[in-house]
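Query structure, 205 tokens:
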């Protein structure tokens, strides 16, 4: 489907608004990232999925959810009967935050100040797409969408609520599901993701 471009805000007198993600200097994460990874999907999407930040593969390829977490997301969406091509997929933070670990780049959780700086981009995506439902994948996305570092994910799972005129459906991050060591607990977490996508489709009608 067609993708949308994120448009810049009017320039602020004290600070030039960045006109593209790759020019963004609102926080320091651009320094170690290959590129900014914008959201993707139809501008008419009724459901928006918000993850945390690009991972290793997303950073290299420039597209959201194309690595292992994306594969798990795909299988949960498909089990819920949700077509990936109809949803808008994005992240709370647009640059990959990592630290070296041997030859690998190890994911680091973004700081709240980085989440706050990057909500500049997410808010433009929400305004342009105007989804009826936002599925927040994990705690970072929840904090960004609710504009508070204090929001707790666990108590909101399976309980959709209204916020700023849209439905918010909170669920686990797919990378979290991948890391659950116990197989039964992992299966339950996966089912919670499937259920979140089913709830999202009911709320989007
Ligand atoms: N994890 C995320 O939160 N987003 C991606 O795009 C990939 C992995």
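Result returned for the query:
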């Amino acid at each position: 489907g067609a993708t949308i471009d994120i448009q810049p805000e009017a320039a602020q007198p004290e600070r030039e608004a960045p006109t593209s993600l790759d020019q963004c200097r609102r926080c320091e994460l651009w320094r170690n990232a290959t590129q900014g990874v914008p959201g993707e999907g139809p501008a008419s999407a009724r459901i928006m999925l918000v993850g945390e930040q690009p991972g290793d593969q997303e950073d290299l390829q420039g597209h959201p959810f194309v690595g292992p977490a994306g594969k798990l997301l795909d299988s949960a969406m498909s089990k819920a009967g949700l077509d990936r091509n109809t949803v808008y997929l994005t992240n709370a933070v647009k640059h990959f935050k990592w630290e070296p670990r041997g030859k690998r780049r190890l994911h680091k959780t973004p700081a709240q100040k980085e989440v706050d700086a990057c909500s500049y981009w997410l808010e433009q995506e929400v305004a342009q797409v105007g989804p009826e439902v936002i599925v927040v994948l994990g705690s970072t996305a929840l904090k960004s969408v609710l504009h508070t570092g204090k929001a707790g994910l666990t108590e909101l799972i399976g309980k959709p609520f209204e916020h700023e005129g849209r439905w918010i459906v909170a669920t686990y991050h797919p990378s979290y599901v991948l890391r659950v060591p116990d197989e039964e607990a992992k299966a339950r977490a996966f089912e919670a993701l499937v259920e979140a996508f089913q709830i999202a489709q009911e709320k989007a009608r």
